[in-house]
Input
Amino acid sequence: MDANRSKCDSGNRASAAAPVNLTPKGLFVVERRLPRITDQQLTILQAALTDASSRFTARGEDVRYLRSIFLSRQERLLSLFSAASPEVVRAVNEAALVPFTSIEPALELDGSGPAPTV
Output
């Protein structure tokens, strides 16, 4: 019995010593409604998001602003972030003083998969 306990104890020590990432990064989409926004205002908004994200990263937060897509007919801006949690994405957007309507987890579907068969 002591031999089995010793094996379990040494196994626990090995796993305790191994680094474990308990908060994997996820993707989050931030939606904004921006009626009558100008190109210049979009540029300023982009700079504010980039700057706020950089400040949070510099102080050790796990967040990165990736890009935005503006849907002009719908007056919507969709901003993509990589972060450990939606709370950190919310904090970055609030620090940038850029209003938003929602923050949603997202999955990226890239175009490098197999072509659909017809």
Remarks:
- The radius of gyration is 21 Å.
- Residues 26-106 form a domain with the Alpha-Beta Plaits fold (CATH 3.30.70.3090).
